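User: what does the whole thing look like in 3D?
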Amino acid sequence: MWGIALLVFREVLEAALIVTIVAAATRGVQARGWFIGGGIVLGVVGALLVATFAGGIADMASGMGQEVFNAGVLLAAVLMIGWHVVWMSGHARELAQHMKQVGSAVRTGASSLTMLLAVVALAVLREGSEIVLFLYGMLAGGADGLYAGLAIGISSGAALGFALYFGLLRIPVRHFFTATNWMLVLLAAGLAANAARYLAQADLLPGWQAQVWDSSWLLTDTSLPGRILHILIGYDARPSGMMLAFYLATAGLLVLGMWYSKRHLAGGHAGAAPQPARGAAAFTAPVRSTRA
Amino acid sequence: MSRPMSSLRRRLAPVLLMLAAGSAPVLAADLPEFQLAIEHHRWQPEELRVPAGVKFKLVVTNRDGTPEEFESVDLKREKIVMPGGQISVYIGPLEAGSYRFFGDFHQDTAQGRLIAE
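Assistant: Here's the predicted 3D structure for the full assembly of 409 residues, as structure tokens:
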């Protein structure tokens, strides 16, 4: 049972932390719960599909289908997070102001929100498909305590996600979206580094030195803090040169994009600020801000 | 979106795609090949010797009726092997030393070491 719980916990944790960051980054957005819930449901359905066709995926790309698929999923998430943070940095100040003025009802760009729904779905899909394959094997092998292990694993992973969420809520509103934006940047950089690892495993990219440094004496990848930091900021005790290059390039590009967006979008056009959501707007699905 | 935004998107996307596609792929032919199998949730062999300093291809066969994941934190490799299936991963060039690997789905029995020398 505990072995099952531990494996499920590890996989759930990654998805849960990503969902948490997305939930924080969309704080105050209308119908956010539906988007995040929808993303999780889509991800679970996707996980079942990926697990069902795992054999077929593995055989694609001359036997390197798993790596290409995983790297593709990771890089797609990186692009979507990137799109969102660049958009957000042009709007963070208004959103924070509106949260103060009209409480929780804030509208955000629908396309930006859809991106984050996809990020949630992809995170759940990637980790979920592994859980499905694992449980399938356990079911076939007749393991004891399967459901108890599954329940413990999922609930403890989710609990850590909630703990992080309520911790993030303590950040003052004024700095809140700046903080979540930076968290998204580091998350995206870490995901990109992971994609580089898969591509090196498939020999589609050179490794550029297998190990640039070794900080496992300080914090191992397998410890709980190591795992959490791996997901949140892409910590790796022994990164390869290519992983480092992907990490830095992603973080650099996003910071550049955020800076550009802030300079050219924020406070540029007077009178184009989005209307605070009130009355009828509360009944509509999230719409693009008027500036978009 | 307003104009500067979409032009930024146009500029960012190809760069990220280029990063994804990466530099020229390394030709994988003619690399030394090593075999590993999992049977009754144990690795065969549990200790695999490989040359240090060269890239090689590791072929992993699953002789069990359940899925397994070949995983190594030390080597940064993880790949699912379907029942009765076979996968290959590229590893190295490694520095001389011992690298732990395991079957993620059966960690109590599926433990092994790769010795690069």
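In plain terms: DSSP finds one helix and nine strands in chain B. Residues 33-116 of chain B form a domain with the Immunoglobulin-like fold (CATH 2.60.40.420).
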